[in-house]
Design brief:
Blueprint lengths: L6 E5 L4 H17 L2 E8 L10 H28 L6 E6 L2 H12 L3 E5 L14 H8 L4 E4 L13 E5 L4 H17 L2 E8 L13 H32 L6 E6 L2 H12 L3 E5 L14 H8 L4 E4 L2 H5 L2
Parallel strand pairs: 1-2, 1-4, 2-3, 4-5, 6-7, 6-9, 7-8, 9-10
Antiparallel strand pairs: 5-10
Length: about 300
C-alpha cells in the first residue's frame, strides 16, 4: 500500500516554520511526483459575530484580499524553489477547520504544515491549529519544525519508524518504506518496551524467588518487543523496503524515540497516531504528542481514514 503519488496540501501562514514546511512539501512533491496544493487561511481579528451586519461583508472582502495577496507571495517562493502548484486555495475562517475540510474536498493524501504560527508563539500541539489538524484530519499529517541549522525533512537521508504493533503503526510502516525507497533514505525502526518495576510479592519469598520473577518478566517483555518489531520489519519488506537497523529500547516511548532520532541523525520520524487496543493516544498528552513537541526533526503522524471517520 502506498499513498504516493498523491495530493499534498501545504498549509502556510508566512511563519518561519511554515517556510520550512514549504521546502518539505516541495521536496516531497517533486520526489514522489505528487500534486502540490497550497492553502492560506485568513483570520478575523475578532469573532465575525462582533461585527455589525453591514460591516461583515466588507470585512470578509478585506480579509480575503489580504489572504490572496499573501498566498500569491507563497506561490512565488515555491516557484523559485523549483516547485509547481496544482491548486491555490484562499479560505477565511478558523484555520484548522478550513484546512481539514479542504483536504477532504480535494482528496489530499498528506497535509504538510509548520509547528509554530506567526509571532514566534508555539501553537502546534498545544491545543491550537496543528493539534486540531492532526487530531481530525482524514489523512497523515507532516508537522515541520525549525532548528538552528535551518535543515528540513529528509536532509540526513535517514528515516526513523516508531512502532508499537498497532494498526496505525502498520500503516506507518508501509508509508515509511515507500518514502525511504522514493527518497533513497536509510530506514531505521524502533520499539520501546517499558521498564520493569521492582517485583514486590504480597509476602516475603526470598531474594532468589524475587530475582527469578523479575528475570522471567523481563525476558517475556523482550520477546514481545522483538516479536512486534519483527512484524513491522516484515511489513516494510512486504512494501518492498528494507530496515537498515532495528532498535529495541527500554524506557518512556517518546523520550527514547526522540533520543534515538538525534543519535542517528534522522531527518524524519514516522509514527502512528494511536496505540494498541484501539485507544487513541496520539495528541492527547501521550506518545505522538510528546514526540512532535520535542523532536529535532519533522514528524509524520499517520492515521487511517476509517479512524478519522470515527473521531
Amino acid at each position: 500500500m502506498s499513498i504516493f503519488p498523491t495530493k499534498i496540501l501545504l498549509a502556510t501562514d508566512g511563519s518561519k516554520d511554515a517556510e520550512l514546511a514549504t521546502k518539505a512539501a516541495v521536496e516531497l512533491a517533486n520526489t514522489t511526483r505528487s500534486e502540490l496544493h497550497v492553502v492560506y487561511v485568513g483570520e478575523f481579528a475578532s469573532s465575525p459575530h462582533s461585527y455589525p451586519v453591514g460591516e461583515l461583508r466588507q470585512m470578509i472582502e478585506r480579509v480575503t484580499h489580504r489572504t490572496r495577496s499573501v498566498l500569491g507571495e507563497r506561490i512565488a517562493l515555491i516557484a523559485a524553489a523549483g516547485g509547481g502548484v496544482s491548486g491555490e486555495h484562499v479560505r477565511v475562517g478558523q484555520p484548522a477547520e478550513e484546512i481539514i475540510v479542504l483536504a477532504e474536498e480535494i482528496g489530499a493524501g498528506l497535509i504538510v504544515m509548520g509547528s509554530r504560527g506567526l509571532g514566534g508563539v508555539r501553537r502546534a500541539l498545544t491545543g491550537s491549529v496543528s493539534d486540531s489538524v492532526v487530531r481530525h484530519a482524514h489523512c497523515p499529517v507532516l508537522v515541520v519544525r525549525g532548528r538552528e541549522s535551518g535543515g528540513t525533512v529528509l536532509v540526513s537521508k535517514k528515516i526513523l519508524l516508531a512502532t508499537d504493533g498497532s494498526e496505525d503503526a502498520v500503516l506507518a510502516a508501509r508509508i515509511a518504506a515507500d518514502l525511504a525507497q522514493k527518497t533513497d533514505s536509510e530506514l531505521h525502526a524502533i520499539y520501546v518496551r517499558p521498564r520493569i518495576l521492582p517485583h514486590r510479592p504480597g509476602y516475603y519469598l526470598g531474594p532468589e524467588v524475587e530475582e527469578g520473577a523479575e528475570r522471567k518478566e523481563r525476558e517475556g517483555l523482550e520477546r514481545e518487543a522483538q516479536r512486534l518489531l519483527d512484524v513491522q520489519i516484515e511489513e516494510v519488506r512486504g512494501a518492498g523496503g528494507n530496515v537498515a537497523q532495528a532498535h529495541v529500547r527500554v524506557g518512556g516511548p517518546a523520550e527514547e524515540i526522540v533520543d534515538l532520532a538525534e543519535e542517528i541523525g534522522a531527518g524524519l520520524i514516522v509514527t502512528g497516531s494511536r496505540g494498541q487496543r484501539g485507544v487513541r493516544r496520539a495528541l492527547l498528552g501521550s506518545v505522538s504528542d510528546s514526540v512532535v513537541r520535542h523532536a529535532h526533526c519533522p514528524v509524520l503522524v499517520v492515521r487511517n481514514e476509517e479512524e478519522a471517520l470515527g473521531s
